[in-house]
Structure formats: C-alpha cells, structure tokens
Specification:
Layout (H helix, E strand, L loop, with lengths): L1 H28 L14 E7 L4 E8 L7 E7 L10 H9 L3 E5 L7 H4 L6 H8 L2 H22 L10 E11 L1 H9 L15 E7 L10 H5 L6 E8 L9 H5 L1 H4 L5 E10 L17 H18 L4 H8 L12 E4 L1
Parallel strand pairs: 3-4, 3-5, 5-6, 6-7, 7-8
Antiparallel strand pairs: 1-2, 2-4, 8-9
Helix pairs in contact: 5-6, 10-11
C-alpha cells in the first residue's frame, strides 16, 4: 500500500511539474532571434512580367532552409529604394523558414535619384512620391502574388513547390508602409478598395495616417487582419509630410484583436533600413535592429504559422527584456 501511495504521489508531482514547465517554460523557450546552423542561401533575383500593364517588377527572393512550401512574406521598399534594401529583414525571416519576397517598384525606386543630376534629385524624389506611383505600387502586389502562384506550380522552377500561398504576409517601409496599408485593409480611397484577400497579416514600418481629410478611424477602423506597426520617436522623412503625429495616429484607430505597436526611442526613419539615410542626425542604435527582428518574427510566427508560443511571447513580459527603458510597446 505504501508503495502504491508513493507511486501515486510521484505521478501527481511529475504531472504538476510538467504543467508548470509547459505554462512557464514555453514563453522562455520561444526565441524569435534563434537561427538554424545551416548556411544561409543567397537571394534569387527574378522579374515579374505584368503583361496587362506592360510592367516589369524586379523581385529578390530569400529562400528558407527547408525545401517544402513555406509561408510567404512580401516587402515593399520606401521611396528611392530597391529590392536589395532592408536585407537584414529578408535574411532573418528566410532563415526562420519564410519565403521572403522583396519587391522593387519602378518609378519610385532607386532609378529616380540615380538618373537625376545632383541638384535635381530632391525634386525628382518629390515627383515620384505622388498618386501615380502609389497606384502602380498597390497593383504590383497582386501581380507578384499571381506570378508566385505560377512559379509555385512550374516544374523545374527554383520556386516550384516552395510557397505556401495560403499563408501570406505583407510588409513595407515608408512608401512601402503606405503600400502595405492599402493592400492590407486600409479604406477611404474614394470608394476604391485595394485590399488583397490573400494577405493574412501585415507589418507597416514607418506607417502614416491618410491625407485628404480622411480620419484615421475611418481609414483603419475596419481592418480585419492582424497588423503590427513600428516607428521611432524621430521617425520623419525628408520627403512628404508624414510627421510623428501621423505615424502614431495609426495604432489607436485600429480595431482590437491582433494589433501591436512598437515605438523605438530616438529611432530615425533609417532605423528600418540597412544603413543611414540623408538627413540622419545621430548614431544608429544596434539594439533597434535586434528588437525589430524579434518582434516582427514573433508576429509572423504567431499569425502566419499559428504558433501559440509566439503569441504568448508577444502578449507576455519576456519581450520587454529586449526593449530599452524609453521604448514603447503596446497591443490590443
């Protein structure tokens, strides 16, 4: 009898220990910065031909280590950028098992300032930031998704079978954030909807509220998918009128449920790029990229993969160890 009681007590104790470890240890075990030991594959440069618009859209695809179908993340660069920008994001996301597809938008890419004379670059950039290129950009997104579906079924293609098109995330910086917002649920475009239904979650780096009298609540109040927005306390660009007030107006207007905001203290507009930008006034903080990678990866893991440990990490206190004292993090 004593032996039976001992075994029963040991069984109960072991069960309680397992429950405790699962409850308290999963968050601690989840690490969005952890990378596999396998060497990183080089990015693959491809081009999407949108025949209907007679438009070529260059893309850079960062391949994940696994060969089976992976969730897809699109990234849209800022004004004057290219598919090679913000490579720190593409490399990390792909190493974590995502097919990261970085778009290049002709008309608002690096060709704008490269083709202009030194004294004409600012004017050329300002012209490129207009509504015509906005329309080109938002139509580039479904065009690339359509081509990914074709490549995914093309025997012998480098992307054959590599994309899980049921799990697509959208992201972008600055003008790319504007692009991301438009195709991921923002409304108020004169009764035109650019929402792309294949997109299941979105991250806007340097987001902004709309201009033209559209209130943030009207623009973002009907967003139906998870969103994460990231900015900095000094996040202003030298083109356009998106000030910090505009960037901070996005999160409060979003409906509750899978919505997150990160505000990095003393982070400038270039914080989401690989290098400093014209107009930067201070040294870059290396911890900022670490935080950006960790939170963005956990967001994708949670909302594209359905990883409950990632969601608990986003909702818990462990991530705050990555943040500096005056960084701001909130969710709803």
């Amino acid at each position: 009898m004593a032996r039976k009681i001992w075994f029963y007590q040991a069984y109960v104790w072991a069960g309680a220990l397992l429950i405790t470890l699962l409850a308290a240890g999963c968050d601690g075990a989840y690490d969005p910065l952890k990378l596999p030991a396998e060497p990183q594959a080089a990015g693959v440069e491809l081009s999407v031909n949108d025949a209907e618009r007679q438009r070529e859209i260059p893309v850079l695809v960062y391949l994940p280590p696994q060969t089976e179908a992976a969730p897809v993340i699109l990234f849209s660069h800022g004004l004057g950028g290219s598919r090679h920008g913000s490579a720190f994001l593409g490399r990390h996301w792909s190493a974590r098992g995502y097919l990261a597809v970085f778009l290049q938008h002709p008309g608002s890419d690096s060709s704008v300032w490269r083709s202009a004379g030194p004294g004409q670059r600012m004017e050329a950039m300002q012209r490129a930031a207009g509504s015509e290129n906005f329309m080109l950009r938002v139509k580039d997104v479904p065009a690339v998704l359509n081509q990914l579906e074709v490549w995914n079924s093309a025997t012998g293609h480098v992307l054959c079978g590599r994309a899980d098109m049921t799990r697509v995330g959208m992201s972008g910086h600055s003008f790319g954030a504007v692009t991301t917002q438009a195709v991921s649920g923002q409304s108020g475009f004169k009764a035109i909807s650019f929402t792309e239904p294949r997109i299941k979650a979105a991250i806007a780096f340097s987001p902004s509220a709309p201009r033209g009298g559209v209130k943030p609540d009207a623009a973002f109040g009907s967003v139906k998918i998870p969103w994460m927005v990231m900015t900095g306390t000094k996040d202003v660009s030298f083109i356009g009128d998106a000030d910090l007030e505009s960037r901070l107006a996005v999160f409060p207007a979003l409906p509750a449920g899978g919505k997150y905001e990160l505000v990095l203290n003393n982070a400038e507009h270039s914080v989401f790029t690989d290098r400093a930008l014209p107009g930067d006034q201070q040294q870059r903080n290396p911890n900022h990229h670490r935080v950006i990678l960790a939170l963005s990866t956990a967001f994708w893991d949670g909302w594209l993969r359905g990883d409950h440990a990632a969601k608990r990490w986003l909702d818990g206190e462990a991530l705050r160890a990555l943040l500096e004292r005056d960084d701001r993090w909130q969710r709803k």
